[in-house]
Amino acid sequence: MSKHERWNTLLELLAASGKLEVEEAATALDVSAATIRRDLDELAEQQLLVRTRGGAVVHGVSYELPLRYKSTRHAPEKRRIAEAVADLVAPGEVVGLNGGTTTTEVARALALRFASGRAEAPGAASAGPALTVVTNALNIAGELAVRPQIKIVTTGGVARPQTYELVGPLTVGVLNEVVLDVVVLGVDGVDAELGVMAHQEDEASISRLFAERASRVVVVTDSSKMGRRAFARICGLDRIDLLVTDTGITPETVAQLTEAGVKVLTV
Predict the structure, then answer these.
(1) What is the pTM (predicted TM-score) of this model?
(2) Would you call 112 helix, strand, or coil by DSSP?
(3) pLDDT digits (tens, 9 = 90+) for 217-258
(4) pLDDT tens digits for range 15-53
(5) Dihedral sign for Cα atoms in the order 203, 208, 213, 217
(6) Which residues, other chains included, contact 106 with Cβ-Cβ below 8 Å and sequence gap of 6+?
(7) Which is it for strands 214-220 and 131-135: parallel, antiparallel or unpaired?
(8) What one-character-per-residue DSSP string does 214-237 give?
(9) Does residue 89 contact residue 115 with C-beta atoms inside 8 Å?
(10) Ramachandran angles phi, psi of 216, nearest 5°
(11) Rounded alpha-carbon distances, angstroms, from residue 13 to 18, 37, 76, 123
């Protein structure tokens, strides 16, 4: 197991229980206690956890894995979801993307589809960009900025180091001036009663504004988020047109979402 894989696993264990003992982690990862101590010390230096005597605890009350450590979780499912969403976007549309691992995969799928020229509409050769993407995610903007067929619009704002998302009044100012054909939202939780949620209230408010500016709202999430609640509510299910997820979603959840007026696409 590589160091990156160990760190990813350690942070996931910590996120699940709120605390971690060295011996417990060493057994779970099948490595020496000395290796775990070094890993915890290095993670503490990055302010990803707080070291304690004999282990570690989460950094702060609300814990969220940084994007770079979440990218390997449910990766095949996220790629399938992204490819399905990219196929639903028409040439010339204006697409909003918030931050997250699944929306990052959507951005990559859109880049492959539209930057290759395979998705050009008949007779639309040089009339304009193949696609316009509006995002508050710095990593998504960086990946798409090198694609000449895609017009990339970034919001202003203050960057959150956990997710690379821009938030705050500057972000709101830009989003209030744009109109989106479709927004693709990554979320941290989906609940049949409360709707879709995020860990951070500032990110939730920006995602809510994205939804308000769009004609169609598509939520993308792997099935592990279904039935899960997070701290800040983005919007109710009545605002969502389509939810794209993997086949791990239960029939009962599909029925609840469908009854609430949400079309569910499983891939």
Answers:
(1) 0.77
(2) helix
(3) 999 999 989 998 888 999 999 999 999 999 999 999 999 999
(4) 767 789 999 999 999 999 999 999 999 888 877 788 999
(5) positive
(6) 81, 82, 85, 86, 97, 184, 220
(7) unpaired
(8) EEEEEEE--GGGBT---SEEEE-G
(9) no
(10) -130, 140
(11) 8, 15, 21, 53
